[in-house]
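Weekly modeling sync, notes
Attendees: S.R. (lead), two postdocs, one rotation student

Agenda item 3: backlog of single-chain predictions. S.R. asked that every request posted to the team notebook include the full sequence so nobody has to chase files. The rotation student volunteered to paste the first one in as an example of the format we agreed on. Action items at the bottom.

Example entry:
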Amino acid sequence: MQHLLKFRYFLLFLLIHCKEAPKPTQTTSAEESNNSTLEKKQGSEGSVILFFGDSLTAGYGIELEEAFPALIQQRLDSLKKDYTVVNSGLSGETTSGGLNRINWVLNQNVDIFVLELGANDGLRGIPLDKTKENLQAIINAVQKKNRKTKIILAGMQIPPNMGPEYTTEFRSIFPNLAKQNEIPLIPFLLDGVAGIPELNLEDGIHPTAEGHKIVTENVWSILKALIY
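Predicted structure, as returned to the notebook:
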């Protein structure tokens, strides 16, 4: 409960002090919290895990505490690990938008940075080379800020609406970047969730609370190797 209170407190701070980014026309109370963070414990020497993403990270359509970053915080707390999770998800975010706000996000110390962006690029048919360029630039910015920050890249896939060639090349962006930068990869963030109606909202894209539980396991399977 304490970390959820911190989460909501820091949301208020952000709404007061930050320029608001564009939001989708349909929003819920959870979405309005999508650029929230969990404030690091005052006086704590614990580590920070920052999830930098879009509506999937923000928990579109569900309660903030049901989204996978909050569930990761619960997992860490249950294991008595001194980590604070920061949810920096923003609904509708593209890699270009993420690149525009990355320097502000990095004003805080980050020990583990989980990059979850690109899905909105694919759904909008943004040129693949631009998506890859933006993701690399975000990785570069994190490394420039602190070479000790550990980066995890979340792999994404999109429906075949843009054609098989675009879809295949889009999917390959993430393992290729992970290999080039020698960083861990979550092969597919929505593995076991995508395409399963009962695990997604009516839009068929965003996970339900139950879906986020599965996403949590997908993330934890890679993240746990970096937890000490």
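Discussion: group reviewed the output briefly. The chain is about 45% helix and 10% strand.
Action items: rotation student to repeat for the remaining queue; S.R. to check formatting next week.
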